[in-house]
Give the backbone structure.
Amino acid sequence: MLFIGPGDWVKDLFIDHAALFLRILNWRWKAIKEEPELIANILRKHGVKKGKILDLMCGNGRIAIPLAKMGYMVTGIDICPLFIEDAKRKAEKYGVLNSTRFITGDIRKLNEILEEDSFDAALNVWTSLGYYSEKEDLQMFKVTNRLVKPGGLFLILNCASKELMLQRFARYIYEDLGDILVLHENSFDIKSSRLNAKWFFYERKGMNLKFLGEAKLNLRLYSHHEVVKMLEEAGWEVVAMYHSIRTLEPATFNSPINIVAKKAD
């Protein structure tokens, strides 16, 4: 399999093949409707019942817009202009233009994108971690800490852990997403702890499949303790780790990464 370096794949998947990935995002809008409410429950449980939310790697507003409908003021940032354009259209459709702000930007330049804002909480949802280098992930944690108010939260939720992914690892897997099917060809580099993959997109036409294109992925998979260590180095205190954002059971060795961190008062 052709190896691609950290970060090189982001443009390939989220910009060059943005229209294909947008179909996955829109499928998740319909298939996982409860996720924003579950996230809101965690925010409320840890004291953020209203206020300003920063949604990092927001996609097309799948989390941000429902949170805005619940009364939060939400700023979403994503590197893909197509996703941001779609998020703005959806914000208008759902009547939350005045309580949302969507910005096209590279998360590695978060310092430049948001200089003055002070948020009550920040979100990083659905394995939006490990795109780049460990140094750059740590920097994102540090800048996010600066942007959140004292006593505010940072939620990393539904993020694949290394242990969970390796437990389920297969060279070939596929996802059936309604009218689109995605075949994944995977390998794992134990030296760098990165999942290297090619995604092949197909559209379902009755009993036939039409090939739509392929894209690459190269994702750093973290163990829980690695994320905890980086969060602490960035000034966060980890206050909860969950196995499931639905049940809020405590995390175990094979849980996804669901971490609630708090900035000191």
Notes: The chain has two domains: 1-23+162-221, 32-159+222-263. The two ends are 48 Å apart (CA to CA). The longest strand covers residues 208-220.
